[in-house]
Structure formats: C-alpha cells, structure tokens
C-alpha cells in the first residue's frame, strides 16, 4: 500500500484527550483479567463503545484493529479516528485492563483472535518475539533517525526492529521547593539537606522512596548503576546477554552496601511502599521523593510547590542513572491487514501531531525528537524528566528479565531492612537464584 502524507491530518488538541497519566512502572504484567472493551471508529459514524462479554475477537468489518490498556484508550482512539477519517476506513480500538494487555494479547494472538497492532511497554518485546506474537516493523533509517536513540534502541531485539516508539519515561528526584531551595547534586547533600529539614521541624524524614517488604528493583536500580552495576552484561552488538548476570558484580555489591547503609541510617525503609510513598511527600513528611511522572498529579492536587531534578551522584561512584521505559506500538505476527498496519506504524505514528497527542494523554516526553522539542519548549516538567533520564539505559527487554524481579527485589529489601548483613553474600544468592530460573526457562 502506498504511503500518504499525514502531517496535516492528525491535528489533535489537548481537549480531545481526556486521559489521566498512567501510574507505576514497567514491571512484570499480571496474567489474568477481564475481556477488552471495543471502540470502533470510521468515517461513517462517531466512535461507539460497547463492553465485550466473551473472549476478545476481531470485528469482521474492521479494516484495522488496535489493542491498548484502558489508560491509553482515549488517546489511541483519538489518533485512530484521524487515521480512519483520512483513509475512509473502519479502525477498531479495543481496551484492556491496565495490567492485562500483555497476557491477553499473547493468548488471543496465538489462537488468531488478536489485533493487528498492540500498544505497550518495550520490555515486553523479548517475550513477544520468543512466543512468536510480534513481527518486524519496516522503519527506514531516515525515519528511525527522527527518534531519540534510546527510544529506537528499546524497540530492537536481536538487531531487528519490532515497533515504533512514542514516549519515554523514567524516575528522577522530586523535591519540595518550599523546603529545599536548590536541588542537591550529590546523595550526601540530599541527606544533609533532608536531615536539616527534619531538625528544623519542616519534615519528619529525609526521603520517600518505594521499597516495600519485597523490594522494588525498578526504583533501586540507580543505586547499582551509580557504581557500574546492574542486571545483565551486554553482547558485542549491545543487546543484553542473559548469560551475564551482573547483579552481584563489584559495582552491584557497592550499590548493595549503600542500600544497607541507608537502611541502617533510616534514610530508606521497607515500610515505605506503593500505598504511602507519594503521600509522605504530598503531606510534607518528606522533602524529597524518588519517583516518576505518575507522582506529579498527586503533588499538584496537594498544592506542593515541587521541582524535578536529576538523581544525585554518589561518593565513590557516579551519577545515579535510572532505567528508561519506552512505550511503543507493536505489529502482530498474525495481523489480518499487515500492509495497512505497517502504514499506520511507519507513516502515521512518526509525526509530530500524533506523538504530541499521545503526550497530551500520558504526560511523558515524546520519543520523536521534533515533537519533544515542541513540548519541552512549553512544558518545563517534560524537559526536566527528559534531562533526568539522560544517560539511562532502556530496561532489559529480554525474556530472562522475568526471572530477575523477585530475587533481586527481595535481596534489596533484605539489605535495607537489615535481614541480610552481608551485601555480597546476599546478592550472590540472588544471582544464583536468577541463573537457575533462566536455565530452567
């Protein structure tokens, strides 16, 4: 199918998109849930929403079917309508519960009942390829160069491109400007400033960060990366290597030692988890919050005079660099209309109007460089988040990552709580458990 010019087609304003920012991080998805709902859009009628009662199946009259979670539904529906109107097509958008898309898509695709395109996180990619549910996307070099390099890197597996990115997210340091006038450059400064705030009665604790009883490796990763630690080593081509588990290398052990120290000093606590991490900041109990874009709306509602800064550097190491999460459009390996889906992905999604429309819905920095430049010029928060992610690496998108979260998280929690007193031994044990799980498949 020939390519069309879509630049003037997708003029979608912020008022079109009534979507809230998604919360949480890109961690292992749940594996069960309810059935998607459908929104069909075409040139013949306005979108209509109906609730599906059976397993998700394709509308026989639809030219193109897209799945996404319910959080992204309004924005994806809006851009799908523009595409449908421009081409005179029937495009159907089906939404799933936020934590069910990954598994529901795979289950449906394996039996030929899935969509042409699915929207999701980049770290699903390796599993999708391994399970044969994703197809390569033919994105030419000139178009690929229009995206942030970190975003395009996240869409690749074994050197092949499997999607088109539209947003980047990461964590950073959120601080209360009424308590902290200038954000700290180093972790030692952060602790000193926080302790001074506590002493002055302006706070009750130094820092709020989601740890929990089982740990939160996504949040803790920067403490490892600051010393050159991490999860996996890389192959010669830059891909993550599941045969190189490095959560217990010298850098990671230093990160573990730092976490243990911060736990002993009550800077970090396993009593802080997803239920209270934001509230500690919004109630002004803590002047600092290590968090992400999903924490900004609660801060605004609480009238916190917040700022967003880069994560600090650590003594004896370097900058705390976060994982990068990339949101992307995948092409199904069993797409019923693959040529049309390829056109949507390669000629429509990589446009400023589409990328900015998706930004309006999710409040994450656009992956397309020109779209990001336009948004950042008008939105200081987006520029701050992007700057906080510079130097960060995309979260591993290989299937072996599924074996990492639980052992690594528990090791982190044990070090912070003091349940484990020898960081190297505890991380060695976690690495052994991860390797065994990877070998088992």
UniProtKB/TrEMBL annotation:
InterPro entries: Maltose/Cyclodextrin-bd, SBP. Residues 26-55 are annotated as: Disordered. The keyword Transport applies. It comes from the Bacteria. Residues 1-20 form the signal peptide. Keywords: Signal, Sugar transport, Transport. SUPFAM superfamilies: Periplasmic binding protein-like II. Pfam families: SBP_bac_8. Belongs to the bacterial solute-binding protein 1 family. This is Sugar ABC transporter substrate-binding protein. It comes from Arsenicicoccus piscis. The lineage of its organism: Bacteria, Bacillati, Actinomycetota, Actinomycetes, Micrococcales.
């Amino acid at each position: 199918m020939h390519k069309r010019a879509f630049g003037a087609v997708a003029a979608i304003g912020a008022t079109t998109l009534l979507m809230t920012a998604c919360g949480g991080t890109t961690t292992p998805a749940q594996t069960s849930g309810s059935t998607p709902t459908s929104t069909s859009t075409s040139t013949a009628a306005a979108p209509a929403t109906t609730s599906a009662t059976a397993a998700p199946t394709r509308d026989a009259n639809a030219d193109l079917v897209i799945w996404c979670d319910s959080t992204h539904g309004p924005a994806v529906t809006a851009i799908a309508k523009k595409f449908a109107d421009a081409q005179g097509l029937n495009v159907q958008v089906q939404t799933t519960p936020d934590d069910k898309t990954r598994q529901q898509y795979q289950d449906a695709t394996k039996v030929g009942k899935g969509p042409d395109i699915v929207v999701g996180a980049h770290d699903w990619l390796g599993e999708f390829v391994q399970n044969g549910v994703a197809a390569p996307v033919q994105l030419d070099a000139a178009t690929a160069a229009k995206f942030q390099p970190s975003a395009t890197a996240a869409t690749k597996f074994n050197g092949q491109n499997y999607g088109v990115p539209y947003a980047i997210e990461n964590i950073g340091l959120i601080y209360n400007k009424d308590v902290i006038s200038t954000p700290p450059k180093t972790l030692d400064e952060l602790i000193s400033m926080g302790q001074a705030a506590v002493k002055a009665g302006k706070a009750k604790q130094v820092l709020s960060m989601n740890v929990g009883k089982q740990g939160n490796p996504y949040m803790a990763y920067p403490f490892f990366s600051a010393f050159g630690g991490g999860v996996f080593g890389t192959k010669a081509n830059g891909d993550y290597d599941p045969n190189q588990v490095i959560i217990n290398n010298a850098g990671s052990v230093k990160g573990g030692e730092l976490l243990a120290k911060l736990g002993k000093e009550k800077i970090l606590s396993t009593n802080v988890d997803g239920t209270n991490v934001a509230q500690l900041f919004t109630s002004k109990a803590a002047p600092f919050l290590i968090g992400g874009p999903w924490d900004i709306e609660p801060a605004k509602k609480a009238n916190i005079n917040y700022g967003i800064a880069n994560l600090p550097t650590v003594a004896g190491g370097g900058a705390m660099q976060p994982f990068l999460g990339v949101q992307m459009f995948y092409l199904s390996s069993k797409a019923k209309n693959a040529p049309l889906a390829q056109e949507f992905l390669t000629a429509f999604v990589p446009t400023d109007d589409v990328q900015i429309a998706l930004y309006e819905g999710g409040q994450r920095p656009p992956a397309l460089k020109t779209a990001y430049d336009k948004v950042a010029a008008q939105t200081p928060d987006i520029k701050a988040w992007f700057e906080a992610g510079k130097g960060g690496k995309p979260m591993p998108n290989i299937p072996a990552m599924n074996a990492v979260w639980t052992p690594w998280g528990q090791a982190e929690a044990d070090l912070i709580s003091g349940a484990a007193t020898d960081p190297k031994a505890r991380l060695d044990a976690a690495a052994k458990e991860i390797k065994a799980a990877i070998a088992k498949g």
